[in-house]
Amino acid sequence: MKKLLTFAIAAGAMAITGLASAATLDDVRTKGYVQCGVSQGLPGFSNADDSGNWTGIDVDLCRAVAAAIFGDGDKVRFTPLSAKQRFTALSSGEIDILSRNTTWTMTRDTQLGLNFAGVNYYDGQGMMVPSGLGVKSAMELDGANICTNTGTTTELNITDFFRSNKMSFNLVAFEKADEVVAAYDAGRCDVYTTDRSALAAQRTKLTDPNAHKVLPEIISKEPLGPVVRQGDDQWFNIVRWTLNALINAEELGVTQSNVQSMKNSDNPAIKRLLGTEGNFGEELGLENNWAANAIQAVGNYAESYEKTVAPLGLARGVNALWSAGGIMYAPPVR
Amino acid sequence: MKEHSVFQFVNDARVRGILAQVALLAFAVFCIGWLVSNTAQNFEDQDKSLGFGFLVQAAGFQIAPTLGTWLFDYEAGVSTYWDVYFIGIVNTLLVAALGVVAATIIGFLMGVMRLSQNLILRSFATVYVEVLRNIPLLLQLFFWYFTVLRALPDKRGKVELLPGVVSVNLEGLFLPYPIWQSGAGVAGVIMLVALGAIWAVNRRSQQRQLLTGHPLPFWRIAGGILLGALAVIWLSVGVPFEWSLPVFKETGPILRRGFQGDTAIVVIPEMLAVWFALTLYTAAFIAEIVRSGIMAVSKGQSEASVAMGMTRGQTLRLVVIPQALRVIIPPLTSQYLNLTKNSSLAVAIAYPELVSIFAGTAMNNVGKEIEMVGMMMCVYLTFSLLTSFFMNWFNKRAMLVER
Ligand SMILES: N[C@@H](CCC(=O)N[C@@H](CS)C(=O)NCC(=O)O)C(=O)O
Description:
A: 3-stranded parallel β-sheet; B: globular; binds glutathione
């Protein structure tokens, strides 16, 4: 009995110190991998193929973080989450990063105990309708049945849109995106609404993708980005600066194939990014070649975009660099 | 000497028992303390706080039209999270109640059929039980939902089940509803009086059967009372309600066509699918409970009653089932509880019950996990306790049948 008690106290004490004050980076190092929360299957952002390989721009971000820490972009495990589950999974510590087409809003940032580490895709909410309805504008949608996901900004935006335009509608909100597609495909709803990028991706799953069209209106701002728990500044910085590194790499012309040779570049900005000048990696708690490893693993932002989102037929648009007419802009490494 | 007494002390079973209990208590207190301190620490780290202030904030999302939204007059952006909570409870209770009733009827039927001497009936019931018990409920839910959806015309079409009165399409089942007229109150009172009289006749009839062995012709008397009451209502206030029949529009803006929601009771297909799935799944388990309950009644009982000249139906109804009930009720209770809990799977197909709209949508918007999960647990706990109390009471009544 006494032994049991000692054991229990020891285990309890270990658990307390283990859970209450661990830094995520130490945790991740001990585990040997980054646990990354992704979607349950959204082509272009996070999607698993038949053999369980995850691809997508959100997946790339997690791989880049893993590479920045371990020098190996495969040291990451993925947890598919529905929109409804995602924040609980993050705040309970089940995952280290949430990289799942998640919109940065003030409520989420200030009330859910979370921090957004940046934006890796600027999006907006759109609507899709069967072409056969002959609807040309969202203003003609009075009386519509609308399918979407629960636990999303989408639900809130669409409600705002119809309320402010004094139109009536019914919302049918599913937990999983696949069911939304299936129900819309079966004709349960006149409208399918979600982020425009997701519309492009989900459309490919319809029986006849060409029999539907996306309406011109964009009814919201959806800055999508990676999220971490509030209260661990070091981890927050690692995720934020890994994203910044990928964007800066595009701007500086550093690519997956030239990253090693670029280490000897004459440009001090490139040298700082790739760790041949300064001590930026160590200040983050990593090695100085952290960014080089990240770029080596997934390529710069443009390369990642071309591989993942572009095949959906989505042009860079606002997601082009600020120097190329877009708003993608990363603070400098210095 | 000293060693000896310590040894004795430890060997004393009573002392050992107390020691073990004290240790267990200490351990429990320790665990709870640990949970609390850990939660507090995490809350501090993530800059969160406990509180129920969010309940009076307005909820900014739309909820599909259901009994709950109708009862609470839900309006997105105006109604509060309190309303969302109660709408969730009402919608959960609604499918649970409908499911319990339907599953009990089908379950009893199937259970009796499994013991039938008719090969076709017996095989049908066996296949039913074996198939439905072994397919995961979630799959059955999807099956019913998407089968129902695929089979129906979209909202600009309809299948008339009762022409002009009851119709169905992808938007749901459209039923007429009564609009009460001025005499409705009087009519209600008259009906109540009639029901009271029927109840009294029933009691009287039972007493007489106990004393003399001859019951009153109960059904005939009850029917007479009902007819009389209806006649009185008709003569005094006329027909006290009118039906609002579903109005179907075939012209106008394309999205406005179809049934006009405010002219009918709309049962959304999500609700129907959840109800079907819960009912048919639970009925398979109830069938097994009923079957084993009936088999537990000794064969001599039914042989004796047949020997006394009762028909097979009478034997089942008057001799076997009342005794079988004693075996059936306890496991039946847990099936009812399962059904209620399983209703939370409905989130998968967009039926707005408690877990879906409160612990899902609302929680995602306000992030008060601990408070909201606590509130939700209270609801399920209350459901469970109430069901158990009721079933225990019912069980006691069934027990008294034994003499
Ligand atoms: N950006 C929005 C919506 C995100 C969202 O969950 N979209 C759905 C609709 S396409 C999705 O990605 N589902 C994929 C899945 O099932 O995991 C938000 O953060 O609330």
